[in-house]
């Protein structure tokens, strides 16, 4: 749903446009990125592909809301290169996904849909 509105104050008229993001169709990962994730937006599970990560111990995953509050976290220690991070039951919106081990840190924006 796209829209338009007008703002008028002190003889100045301002025309503004807005768009609502409903999905992200493309995953952009730099060549040096050691972790990728999908789908985005996510509904129940975020798949985290760590095959390029030199696993030197546990992998920790944290999810933060827009206010910076950590709303979910998990520690994976099974050595798997594909992690499944459960986001079922979270409110829809924008979140920050933080994935790290002893030597690496990856932070990405993710959309949770209801």
Taken from the alpha-carbon principal axes, the silhouette is globular
Strand order of the largest sheet: 6-5-8-9
Q: Which topology does CATH recognise? A: Immunoglobulin-like
Averaged pLDDT, please? 77
Biggest pleated-sheet summary: 4 strands, antiparallel
Which spans have pLDDT < 50 for at least 5 consecutive residues? 24-31
H/E topology pattern: EEEEEEEEE
Number of continuous helical runs: 0
The total number of structural domains is: 1
Residue share in helix: under 10%
Would you give an account of this structure?
It is a single chain. Helices cover 0% and strands 49% of the residues. It is an all-beta fold. The strands form three sheets. Strands 6-5-8-9 form a four-stranded antiparallel β-sheet, with no helix packed on it. Strands 3-4-7 form a three-stranded antiparallel β-sheet, with no helix packed on it. A two-stranded antiparallel ribbon has the order 1-2.
Q: What topology emerges from the helices and strands here?
A:
Layout: E1 3-9, E2 12-18, E3 36-38, E4 45-49, E5 59-64, E6 70-76, E7 82-86, E8 93-100, E9 105-112
Antiparallel strand pairs: 1-2, 3-4, 4-7, 5-6, 5-8, 8-9
What are the defining features of this structure?
114 residues; globular; three-stranded antiparallel sheet
